Amino acid sequence: MELLEELGGVxxxxxxxxxxxxxxxxxxxxxxxxxxxxxxxxxxxxAYTPRTHEVAGQIRDQYHHAIDVAPxxxxxxxxxxxxxxxxxxxxxxxxxxxxxxxxDASVASARTTQx
Length: 115
Fold this sequence. Notes:
Blueprint: H1 18-24, H2 49-52, H3 69-77, E1 84-85, E2 88-89, H4 99-103
Antiparallel strand pairs: 1-2
C-alpha cells in the first residue's frame, strides 16, 4: 500500500499481466499486451451468413466501439429495440450499428467520436 500513489505514474508499467490478458481475451490470446494500432484497437470478426458470404475474408477499417455490437445485432436481425419492457421505459441505445460496414468496405465510419 505504500506505493499506491505511484500507480499510473512514469515509474510503473500499467498493463494486464499475460495470464489475465489471455483469460479476458479468449479466443484472441494476449491482445491486451500485444495490441493493434498502439493499443487502441482489437479485431472484431463478424459472421452473419445472409450478408457476409459475399464479403468473406475482407477487412474493414471503420472505427467502432464494443457498445456498437448490440445495435448491430438488432439491425442485422431486423429488430427494433422496445421503448419499454414490462412497463419500464428503456434508455436509448447510444451507439451505432456496424451493419453498413459489412456491405461496403469503402464507406466512411458512422462513428465520429470515441465512446
